[in-house]
Amino acid sequence: xxxxxxxxxxxxxxxxxxxxxxAVKDVDGMYQALVHPEIGGFAKADIEVLQNPQRxxxxxxxxxxxxxxxxxxxxLLFFSGHGIKDDTGRLYLATRTTRKTLKGDLIRSSAVAASxxxxxxxxxxxxxQVVILDSCFSGAFAEGLLAxxxxxxxxxxQLGGEGRAVLTSSSSTQYSFEQEGSDLSIYTRYLIEGIxxxxxxxDDDGVVSIDELHEYASRKVRQIQxxxxxxxxxxxxxxxxxxTKVPPGDPKKKYHKEVARYIKRGEISFxxxxxxxxxxxxxxLSEVEATAIEDETLVVARQEFREKLQQYERAFTxxxxxxxTPSEEDxxxxxQNLQQILGLRNEDxxxxxxxxxxxxxxxxxxxxxxxxxxxxxxxxxxxxxxxxCYRLQQMQQQWLLTEQDIAKISRSVTAxxxxxxxKLQQYExxxxxxxxxxxxxxxKQRNQLRQQQQDLGLKDQDIAPIETRITSDIxxxxxKLQQYExxxxxxxxxxxxxxxxxxxxxxxxxxxxGLEDEDVVQIEEIVVRQFRSFQQTVxxxxxxxxxxxxxxxxxxxxxxxxxxxxxxxxxxxxQFIVPLILVAAAAIGYWFKEQQSQVATVQNxxxxxxxxxxxxxxxxxxRTIDNINTGWVIQTTAAIPLANKESLAPxxxxxxxxxxxxxxxxxxxxxxxxQECPNKDASTPVKDDSPNVQQPKRIEFSQAQLKxxxxxxxxxxxxxxxx
Length: 723
Hints:
By secondary structure, the chain is an alpha+beta fold. Helix content is 47%, strand content 13%.
């Protein structure tokens, strides 16, 4: 009975295939284990070693291994290197000269087909054949051993004759040949360890069989690389092919095996420590020898334990990072499964889970902070400035925020801001509609707008510029109407009916002010009606004006008649009318420019000395505290106490600066902000215990307080000391 082995390692490759430095070292390690007289028992002459061979050399060596053998010969083929599948899924073993096309397809003539190895094995008379493949796709090797094409035959029935076994490291393309701290590939490393230390002798019968070697190496590999799935394909005696022996009577090997048995969680347990101490004395090992064996074994065990903890941490982190947070029941199930697979206990994983949860919570908080800063930046400036972009980038790098999360936040913030802007536009349309129906707004309309603001979820500081701008536009338009009314009134008082040249000047003045025909028609009707009423009062009766005197000024009918009859009142020369109109137009333009400037700076609070213009009234409604409005003036009838021991003296005049809803009132009353009028007759607030004069900047009362103080409201037409 002969024991023959062929060991092939390919570390160097043509461009397109990455080098594998561990491959030739795998061959050296396996060679040392096999030629050991008390372990492998292979004769050196019966072991052929090929390092980085070409295709023909490799095929000849494989054919020689299986040719001319006897039934009881033990034949071992070991290969460490790249395994490659072609476009049909067939496995090839790469050689030193294996190449790929520009498209990445394998050039099959440059590699050794697995089918060639199958044929060589099938022709051999040996019934103890062992093939060990440490390569990518090595699991595909057994597929070529199928003898039929229908795909229904069990793979174990097609492995050939009795006593044939194939050990493969993985069926995956992504596993690490090399591991930190070791020169050998992971799979070969544990094969050699199981053989040389005897720890693979699971039944303690003094020999390492193929199934025992596979069981040991597979278990150790999966502890470190769960993605790798070592497999064994064998039938009948193939499982029990005896490959190597365990050196008899070697106390160090015996102690090494027991150390590996008692290592748990990367350390030797208390019970194991006591047991090993007794065993050390019985085996006659010194403390130095025992410690060296323990340290050698513990280095690997600790590394394995750390890798288990890292695998648990990655799995638990991935679970908590899902969009839908798993329930506690799901987490318990995950915890139990991972602990069982990795051989961990609760005390091993509790600290990991706490750290992972804290890290994820901190990450979420950083995402929220980034979202808040981004939202404020977009509201403040669009597009974002270079400094803002740099600041956001620094935050992302400092907090290790992923590009995916940043993109998700950006989309969400942009959508929210756009939706908020649309709500602001909706509020603006509602406000414009309300002012078109009634201006100034009544308390009822103000309450309705307040409710609309709350329904839309708008902030006070966001709607304030809108209200200010619309109010300013309305006031500017009303002022233009008043200016036009004054000019028309002056022109009619000069002469009536108007001549064509005067009517042309009025038309140009209308265009300068930007007034519509509907606006000026109403004004002209009022002025003409007032003028005729005046004529009927102070002048003799005049003949009626014919309808033809109301000629159209533009597309709309103008009510100022043509020059059919002159009034007999004192009038200015005509040459003064046109300059008067032009001067008035210049004044209106200057006033309008000032109004636009004020709108641009509406967010700046007015100074304490600002004089608020009274809001024009549509009708002579009596002014009271219930319908108080901006610009009105009130007078105190008695002393009014203020904060900080101050008070307002009787007969003091105050002007209304602003009215706003009182959030603390249940009957929808308003808060009224007042400012003292700088008139000499009014007394200024004074402290009760000090004669020094101190003028307050602003004073705020509720409507109920003003009623309680019994203040009086100046009516329209009364002289105001605040003007």
